[in-house]
Amino acid sequence: MTYTKYSASGNDFIIFHTFIEKDYSLDAIKLCNRTEGIGADGLVVIIPSSQADFKWLFYNSDGSNAAMCGNATRAVSHYAFFNNLVSSNEMQFLTGAGLIKSFVENDIVETQLTAPKVINEEFIQGGFLWHLVDTGVPHLVTIVDDLELYNHDLCAKMRYEHNANVNFAKIENGIIKVRTYERGVEGETLACGTGMAACFLRANELGLVKNTTFVYPKSGEELTLSLRNGTIYFKGAVKKVFTTTI
Ligand SMILES: N[C@H](CCC[C@H](N)C(=O)O)C(=O)O
Known about the structure:
Keywords: Amino-acid biosynthesis, Cytoplasm, Isomerase, Lysine biosynthesis. Its EC number is 5.1.1.7. This protein has about 250 residues and is an alpha+beta fold. The chain is built from four helices and 17 strands. The longest helix has 13 residues. The radius of gyration is 17 Å and the shape is globular.
């Protein structure tokens, strides 16, 4: 089987396409293992679809299935275009969270995320003010003045209590810096797309950032989040790292 490794702002994925729709959770655990496998935060399986250009199955590195993954939507769009799985650089594909539209321009990919759903406007826990929103998958967001306040043990506790990813966001000079503890990776990743979207949305609704804002994850790579007619757009570079046949 041929697998392609992508990095989307440091959030990395293994991608392949197949006609066989089955449970690939054990493949995800094996392939994503950073010492005995290729190593990645997640596995994306592309499968034909009669309702869209294709559909995907997304697995975190622990083998858990997730409805959506913002960074993987950018990587998979690039993969589909450059592997001739689609006939245009504009495509739409089905995820567990719904239909995603994307636009590929060389190594820059913009995707339209699914409509956000606020789960809990705000609550205090562990000394922080939290907001819980689903931007394809559930995200806890707290806005802080110092990202060093990010705490692994608190994130792990919040992750399990709320079954959500956990984001610490700092706003400075109109941009957002984000650190994310990712559910299913069970640790901090270098970037989390739906997490950056959740932080952007929260900051925008509080009037702290404009409708188009640069967001910087742990990797320091620049992403652009935009809110246009109530829809979130997510744009940034992706990198095809290598292809291998195992
Ligand atoms: N770990 C997430 C899925 C991947 C989200 C993230 N990698 C992104 O880019 O949105 C979850 O299980 O909820």
